[in-house]
Amino acid sequence: MESTLRRTWAEIDLDAMAHNYKVLCGRMGAQTQFLGVVKADAYGHGAVQISRVLEELGAAYLAVSSVDEARELRSAGAALPVLQLGLTPAEQTEQLLAGHITQTVWSERAALAFSREAERLGGRLRVHIKLDTGMSRLGFLCTEEELASSAEAICRVCALPGLEPEGIFTHFSVSDEGSSDSRAYTLLQHQRFQAMLDALEARGVRFALRHCANSGAAANYPQFGYDLFRPGILSYGIGDGAAELGLRPVMALKTVVGEVRDLPPGASVSYGRTYRASSSIRVGVLPIGYADGLHRTLSNRWRVWTPWGFAPILGRICMDMTMVDLTALPQVTPGSEVEVYGPHNSVNDAARLAQTISYELTCAVSKRVPRIYRRNGRECARELLLRE
Ligand SMILES: *Cc1c(COP(=O)(O)O)cnc(C)c1O
Questions:
Q1: Active site includes 130?
Q2: Would you place residue 386 in the very low, low, confident or very high pLDDT band (cuts 50, 70, 90)?
Q3: Considering 21, 22, 39, 373, which one is annotated as catalytic?
Q4: How is 111-141 classified by DSSP, letter by letter?
């Protein structure tokens, strides 16, 4: 791992994570507990370390999107309840039970299959019911027309043997968007959620854990708190509204200048010759490329931060290397550290240029990039996902 350290690495600032946790909890109020969304290796930040910090801080729950991700947390000693948000084949019920993993139930058909398996195995599977209030992905439909029949179906699900219904939730599709259309839609989704809770209560069914707020809702609708809230991207200090809320980016993707070269006018840089120097240029060669997760669409668009200013990317990003313009930055020399994304160089801006979202860029930071964890301003752990 030492060998890769002076190449490209991601610093994960656990103090920033703790700060964001406190800010977000303060926003939602004391009745609403924190469910840490650590799917996709905590959006590329490292689920095991992030979960440990969240557990220490007092989070109530963790959420992942596969049984394997949940098992990774359990193997690392995570004691918090873990919710599997996504699709799980009923054949994995044994693993759910063994890992004390809570499963989302998105339809009566899925509930029957889980119930049958849990009964066969002699266990009780803890479940959260998923409501489709307008995302059209998974869940019991909650439109006015479907409300009564879905409520009846959920009541039948709750009476199935082998299941322990603990929670109920829904997911917003445009809570992060400020247009009047999006606001109206989010209010409609919330209204459907509340209507279903009321319909179930009228039938004598109540859930201990009701939740709907993702990051967008935490930012724009803190009144949608209920028992838990599920902020993913904002807890990592990025995404829409993060800066306005005073949140701090947790990840800094860093690399070093591996070589510096003076090139003559007319030099064309990298594959495809998409950049051509009109005068002499001083070029830095960085040991980072799209195989590290640096999106190739950022070729000729993004920049890296140095303490003396920004260095624009020249030409196409290669698999393992990227060239940057150091002509105006004579202080930068071989060995200088640069920030690809992070507190000085927001991944939100890079995402906009790449016509994607910050989520995709941090999730893309690949397994050959070591994660260096920092706490109280000091390195406290490192992880490399490559097999040694
Ligand atoms: C991923 C996910 C979240 C977190 O979303 P963010 O936009 O990152 O806050 C919350 N709930 C569900 C069901 C999810 O799949």
A1: no
A2: confident
A3: 39
A4: HHHHHHHHHHHT--EEEEEEEESS--SSSEE
Ligand 1 lined by 171 (C-beta under 6 Å):
yes
Distance from the alpha carbon of residue 37 to the mean position of ligand 1, in angstroms? 7
| Residues 127, 336: Cα–Cα separation, whole Å | 51
pLDDT at 234 over 60: yes
Q: How confident is the model at residue 384, as a pLDDT?
A: 87
Confidence of residue 42 (pLDDT cuts 50, 70, 90): very high
CB 297 within 8 A of CB 322: no
Give bridge partners of residue 281 from the DSSP assignment.
Answer: 263
Name which of 290, 265, 295 is nearest 355 in CA terms. Answer: 295
The helix/strand/coil state of 178 is coil
CA–centroid distance, 114 to ligand 1, in Å, is: 24
- Burial classification of residue 91, based on how many CB atoms lie within 10 Å of its CB (0-12 exposed, 13-18 middle, 19 or more buried): exposed
In the numeric block, which tokens belong to residue 129? 């019911």
Q: How far is the CA of 368 from the centre of ligand 1 (A)?
A: 26
Residue-wise pLDDT for 199-226, tens only, equals 999 999 999 999 999 999 999 999 999 9
C-alpha 107 – ligand 1 centre gap (Å): 19
171 CA closest ligand 1 atom index: 13
Mean of all residue pLDDT scores within the chain = 97
350 contacts 341 by C-beta, under 8 angstroms = yes
Cβ-count burial 224-256 (b if 16+ within 10 Å, e if not): bbbbbbbbbbbbbbbbbbbeeeebbbbbbbbbb
Identify the bridge partners of residue 229 per DSSP, sorted by sequence position.
34
Check residue 387 and give its pLDDT: 74
Determine if ligand 1 sits within 6 Å of the CB of residue 215.
Answer: yes
Q: Is 249 in the pocket of ligand 1 (CB under 6 A)?
A: no
The mean pLDDT of 72-97, rounded to a whole number, is 98
CA distance readout (Å), 172 to 135, 214, 385: 6, 7, 33
231 lines ligand 1 (CB under 6 A): yes
In 3D space, the residue among 78, 75, 71 whose CA is nearest the CA of residue 53 turns out to be 78
Q: What is the pLDDT of residue 385?
A: 80
Q: 334-383 pLDDT, tens per residue?
A: 999 999 999 999 999 999 999 999 999 999 999 999 999 999 999 999 99
